[in-house]
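Posting here for the record, re: FE2/S2 (inorganic) cluster.
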Amino acid sequence: MAKAVKGSRTAKKKTTTKTPVRRPGVKRAKAPARREPAARRWIELRVNGRVHALEVGRDLQPSTTLAVLLRERLGFTGLKIACDEGACGGCTVLLDGQAVLSCMLLAVEAHGHEIVTVEGLPADDPVIQAFAEQSEPGHGTALQCGYCTPGFVMTARALLDENPAPSLAEVKEALGGNICRCGCYQGIAQAVLHAAEKLAARRAQGVKS
Ligand code: FES
Ligand code: FES
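Prediction output follows.
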């Protein structure tokens, strides 16, 4: 990876497309087909249901990552850029329904795709509810500082969309690419299992996830 120019994330040169997903247990997303990003003048992304038209060279650079665009240009600060090299899962968002590491994807490569950040999930999303409940006293907590939580929530969301009733082993495998520096892994896995139970209860009532 090229060295970052000091103080500028957007100046970071990411000229190669790396596989944006590293989620064992969660279906791997193919990187979007490249569309000669350097030549494109405009890109359009649908983020949390709203279309954003952005000019390359003004709103973003060809080297701007999707993570930086989402956080610094569009204000979706739920995702976290911690390692910025695909190793922690803090920047996980859904791209066309699949979990991707947004720090590993150029923003221009997301042109024409549908993105969901943690802000795009409804407040009563079962995964969000389960994480919130798992932080109550008496449970092994799923969050302390909460820094990693959006990444875990989005990874869990992708897992449950594909596998609504995962085993504990499958949950652990799917979350294997996410790091929690507070060490709440047990509580996080329990929260995902609780979210799966909530989804099952909703389905039994005829409510879509
Ligand atoms: S910030 Fe993207 S994986 Fe760590
Ligand atoms: S709760 Fe602090 S990093 Fe996970």
